[in-house]
Amino acid sequence: MFKTQHTLAFFIFLCALSDVYGTFNQLQLVLRWPASFCDDKKCERTPNNFTIHGLWPDIKGTVLNNCNPDASYTTVTGDKFDKRNKHWPDLILTEAASLKHQGFWAYQFKKHGTCCSDLFNQEKYFDLALILKDRFDLLTTFRNKGIIPKSTHTINKIQKTIRTVFGVVPNLSCTPTMELLEVGICFNRDASNLIDCDQPKTCGTLGNTKIFFR
Ligand SMILES: *[C@@H]1O[C@H](CO)[C@@H](O)[C@H](O)[C@H]1NC(C)=O
Ligand SMILES: *[C@@H]1O[C@H](CO)[C@@H](O)[C@H](O)[C@H]1NC(C)=O
């Protein structure tokens, strides 16, 4: 009993820590590389292209969380489902299961989407993520610079490639074994302009550290 309460208290404490409120000053489109994401998980699908992890409103380099505990997620079907499923798939689930259980999108919306609802309602939030994602063919950008799947490159090279093509500093994240996992691309509040990500991460402190593009 004591242990349960203890765990619960600790959990509440963690939640309290992770909830940050305020007005966002950047929107971060977080793209994930499925092969790396799926390396240590049981995925039902591993598309050969970047997919969306989320669209995150940030305030000064910190991700905002759970801004409206009363918000509810609206399930999508038909064309809307197909589009979302293609570009923002729940890799853990099959397509059929994703149609039934839209927990990944519900989670992303409640945790992040509720933090930019002053500008984007739920429908606009999801549409915006898809529109922004379609502007970045990172796969081709990478391929043009020789960054192809199963090759290794320095952090500098990956960062510079994104900077050169998109003109802004991305927020990179890697797995613990230094595989490129996610690329965050940042926008101003209404997503009309690309901006440098605030307090970007780079996977390591040394630019010549090698990262693997699985
Ligand atoms: C940068 O990306 C990492 C990993 O995706 C994330 O944890 C972090 O919050 C991001 N930084 C910002 C400022 O959003
Ligand atoms: C990968 O995704 C981008 C962005 O949505 C798209 O433009 C591109 O055609 C896709 N590439 C392949 C090979 O599917």
UniProtKB/TrEMBL annotation:
GO CC list: extracellular region
Alphabetic keyword roster: Disulfide bond, Endonuclease, Glycoprotein, Hydrolase, Lyase, Nuclease, Secreted, Signal
PROSITE patterns: RNASE_T2_1, RNASE_T2_2
Gene Ontology terms for molecular function: hydrolase activity; ribonuclease T2 activity; RNA binding
Subcellular location: Secreted, Extracellular space
Gene3D superfamilies hit by this protein: Ribonuclease T2-like
Name of one Pfam family that matches: Ribonuclease_T2
InterPro entries: Ribonuclease_T2_eukaryotic, RNase_T2-like, RNase_T2-like_sf, RNase_T2_His_AS_1, RNase_T2_His_AS_2
GO biological process: RNA catabolic process
N-terminal signal peptide: 1-22
Recorded family membership: Belongs to the RNase T2 family.
PANTHER family: RIBONUCLEASE S-2, RIBONUCLEASE T2
Name the record gives this protein: Self-incompatibility ribonuclease
Organism of derivation: Solanum habrochaites
Gene: S
